[in-house]
């Protein structure tokens, strides 16, 4: 018995036109979002964009000022947190220090007056899920950070909620443990089939674990999609800059995908919704920029001459910083075997394909890195 409780074909969570104000600040602003049954969805965005507030409204710790929140197809407005079929894991695990691991995991079931024999079975199962059965008798202080986080997970999963909410649960772990836990969490989620809503400001974390990612900005969802879509087809300059690295150039749109920039004419063959004459922001990822020592023959479109001002060896890839003049520095990433033999001070030509050029309306925000 590993499947989450089913509620017909209903989506796990639906937020419809939800807003939450703190005084004049809209922490969440007319947000609409659906979490599908059994999916791993991340809320990704910078500090203050409303991720935690969104999660807390699903959990029931905050009440929206407008809009509706559905869990398993039913509105949960007015339903207290412990009655919602959701559970939360926080960054600070908040285990009870004076209780054993088993007692910590059993706590919620005891509050619900679950029969003792049931509790024993369920606690053992939950500890098995996170590979902590051997630690049932220990106190939290006798566990590592990663082990404490596993116990917190077991505690949140013991009554098989249909949705697990995770608020930066790996934030307190060191990098290696964090990466191990990312893999474990994803495996656990897949195995249990429970919907996970995972809050993070770490794009790598979101990209590696999620079925879908909601990129948040100022209390709204700016784009919702799988990692591939978010990375390859960002809907705005904001998304393009928040996930992965980018070279941004500002310019003015011409006809037919042409863009005039102070580094010369660029062209994009990707669809975009800009009009000729409009101020635009052009984005090209470092891994799509080629760097060569000789001036390439043919058109000068999407070709920029510059001086190498930095070379960083990164194992499989090599990263070049190229001063292209007019205050622009381009970042270029090449696979090490294919990287040009250019050193600091050398002249080189950066070049990229029109198909890799994204053109967005200039919205004034998010300046180039
Ligand atoms: P972080 O990654 O830093 O946790 P977040 O994306 O989770 O940020 P929220 O914590 O949801 O963002 O906050 C969104 C906005 O609402 C912020 O401007 C924040 O200052 C404000 N806010 C959140 N909680 C409160 C509160 N209890 N009282 C007043 N303002 C609040």
Mean pLDDT: 91
CATH architecture of the largest domain: 3-Layer(aba) Sandwich
Distance between the termini: 49 Å
Bound molecules: adenosine-5'-triphosphate
From the 3D structure, determine the CATH topology of the largest domain: Rossmann fold
CATH top level class name of the largest domain: Alpha Beta
Low-confidence stretches: 1-5
Radius of gyration from CA coordinates: 25 Å
What does the largest sheet look like? 6 strands, mixed
How many domain modules? 2
Family: Belongs to the ABC transporter superfamily. Spermidine/putrescine importer (TC 3.A.1.11.1) family.
Protein name: Spermidine/putrescine import ATP-binding protein PotA
Catalytic activity: ATP + H2O + polyamine-[polyamine-binding protein]Side 1 = ADP + phosphate + polyamineSide 2 + [polyamine-binding protein]Side 1
GO molecular function, one term: ATP binding
What does this structure look like?
This is Spermidine/putrescine import ATP-binding protein PotA. It catalyses: ATP + H2O + polyamine-[polyamine-binding protein]Side 1 = ADP + phosphate + polyamineSide 2 + [polyamine-binding protein]Side 1. Belongs to the ABC transporter superfamily. Spermidine/putrescine importer (TC 3.A.1.11.1) family. Its EC number is 7.6.2.11. The chain is an alpha+beta fold and about 375 residues long. It folds into 2 domains: about 15-230, 3-Layer(aba) Sandwich (Rossmann fold), CATH 3.40.50.300; about 245-360, RNA polymerase II/Efflux pump adaptor protein, barrel-sandwich hybrid domain (OB fold (Dihydrolipoamide Acetyltransferase, E2P)), CATH 2.40.50.100. The protein has 8 helices and 20 strands. The protein has helices at about 50-60, 100-110, 115-130, 145-155, 175-190, 205-210, 225-230, 235-240; strands spanning about 15-20, 25-35, 40-45, 65-70, 75, 85-90, 165, 195-200, 210-215, 220-225, 245-255, 260, 265, 280-285, 290, 305-315, 315-325, 330-335, 345-350, 360. Strand 1 and strand 2 (about 25-35) form a beta hairpin. Helix 2 (about 100-110) packs across helix 3 (about 115-130), helix 2 packs parallel to helix 4 and helix 3 crosses helix 4. The protein is elongated, with a radius of gyration of 25 Å. Residues about 1-5 have low confidence and may be disordered. Adenosine-5'-triphosphate binds near residues 25, 27, 49 and 51.
